[in-house]
Amino acid sequence: MLKRSSAAPRGSRNTSPSVRGGGIQKRRAGPARVDKDGDLVMDPVAAGGERKSGRGQLGGQKSRARGPGRGSGGPSRGGNAGIIKAQQAIIRGLGAKQANVLESHVTTGGTMARVDGLSSSKAASNPDGGVESLLAFLERKASGLDAKSNRAIKIKKSLKKGDSVIITASPEDIAEIQKLDNFMFAGTTLTIQPYDPSSLARSDKSEDKKKAQVSPSAQETKERLRGILATRYDAALKLLDLSALAQDEGLKQMGVFDGSTTTSKIFPALMVVCDGLFKTRQEKRDAIVSVTLADNNLADVSDVAALAQTFPDLKNLDLSRNRLEQLSSLDAWRSKLRHLSNLVLIGNPIESQLPTIKTEIMRRYPYLEVLNGVQIRTPDEIAAAVEAAKSPIPIATPDFRDVGQVGENFIRQFVVLYDNDRPQLLATFYDMQSVLSISVNMQAPRNPKNSVPIPPWASYTKHSRNLVKINNLPTQMSRMHRGSQAIQSVWATLPATRHPDLQSQPEKYLIECHPLPGLADPNNQSIRGVDGLIVTMHGEFEEQNDSTEQALRSFSRTFVLGPGAPGGPPIRVVSDMMVLRAWGPLALPRSSPIAPETPQGNPEQQKQQAIAMQLVERTGMTPNYAMLCLTETGWDLEQAFIAFTANKDKLPPDAFIAGATR
């Protein structure tokens, strides 16, 4: 694999000798050359003079210099004139689109993407407007998406138009680059969408009318395809009938199907024409709800993969009477057509496998309700499944098991003091053995619908101990700050914050508290250690800075609390771990509609019930016997356990929970 030298300057991308425009071209840019027979002239020295055969021709003789051409099995020059005319029209482009000729496939040059967001980034102040930095970022990030692949992503060409950057690359590289949609670049969120080259031709009409012109033959072909689509469209049903294309008389008259040509050649062209009929995605949704691809002799959907790009919000799809044998036959649409609600596979070999693969089909198409005319789930079940998919790990309600309100009092004081008086916070809860660590997670998933601009991370990254990113052991250890003075020096460099008020905005937090036994005894009196608490707090805060924009961050903070050492705070922070990420709404737990309401007793009764349950766990006694034992010992848990140990052999069998260890 050739690699670009890191020392060499990138230079102007549009003047690189390796840059090629749309379509298949060899060694130089510029419009494709077509000879009088409709063949693409791919030889780099051919310039309108003698015709040379070779790679890139739909038909022709063997090249003297390069051996047989890629398309040497195509029709000869003396073949059917109608077929040659149709091929020539498609090659020259539908609606000013140049075509790629790849063996038996005739597809439009869908190798472009539009990147928005550069103008609002910090890189926009660069001399070149930040284009070079953006392209380098896209290539670097896209190349690193697949850890198992060493393939480098290469952007062949770029063009800045207004606030957008139009990039050209191979279809495989464009697919990887589109995965960077909603990634952060230089302080802004990038939007990356497929780009229709015809829109570029239309917008450049005033600058280069010659390039934007459509040949009469291409315009004729385009109009004939539009007419064919019109006869196959049912406005009342919003149905586009693309079944049995090889039997269509209109396509036969155009010479598209000559016995060797397949649906794969004409289908992309039909989708190009469909794209030109609609200006927005919403217009497509309003006009086309159902598509039938029945009777097209499809062994898989790779030949009609363009359907998912042209009509991504399709509701009903008929694939009847094709040759689909297994689920992998649909892989070209994997992670696409996510809104499909009705799928028909009748008359395919795969039909016999549906009972075993139905679950996987439903997973691929989360809104699928009807399969082969049979309802496989109700709308309520679909809504529940979609909601559950948003939080694949069930989120339970917070479990706050405090001891003597130590955890509650700590949280209430911590939030106020961290925002207003950090030195006082240190003096109240931290000592010379307290440990602080900070981790910045820049790759936490975010919902683009609820995202906000991300403020710079510079204040935090120099302290970050993210073990996924920091692999050097000395660095890892140096970023674990021990003692009040070390923690104070770190906090002094962090921005001032303002947390939501706990009393008036409790929905902004998710806080849990659990007892934690076995902490090191600061008095060195107990070998087994002492009891403490672990408190986990998830929420958000706003940074206080000079910017007019709101700077929100989400955080998760885990505290380990224990008894203080002599001369120190009575309750100390043993460990304080803070994880920061870009802001996103807090994933609150969903309450179960069938969960019975727990009656609220008085605090004393709740405390006794908690003590009784601890004795049940330690002894295996039933709750009733545990409460009797505690009543006899004045609700002293340790005394109750001693009494149980001394008398457990005298207790009847029904005093113990069935199956409990005695």
From TrEMBL:
Stretches assigned to the NTF2 domain: 406-580
GO cellular component: nucleus
Pfam families cross-referenced by the UniProt entry: LRR_NXF1-5, NXF_NTF2, TAP_C
Cellular localization per UniProt: Nucleus
Region Disordered, residue ranges: 1-81, 196-219
Domain of life: Eukaryota
Entry similarity comment: Belongs to the NXF family.
An MF annotation (GO) of this entry: RNA binding
Role according to the record: Involved in the export of mRNA from the nucleus to the cytoplasm.
Protein name, as recorded: mRNA export factor MEX67
PANTHER family: NUCLEAR RNA EXPORT FACTOR, NUCLEAR RNA EXPORT FACTOR 1
Keywords, alphabetical: Cytoplasm, Leucine-rich repeat, mRNA transport, Nucleus, Repeat, Transport
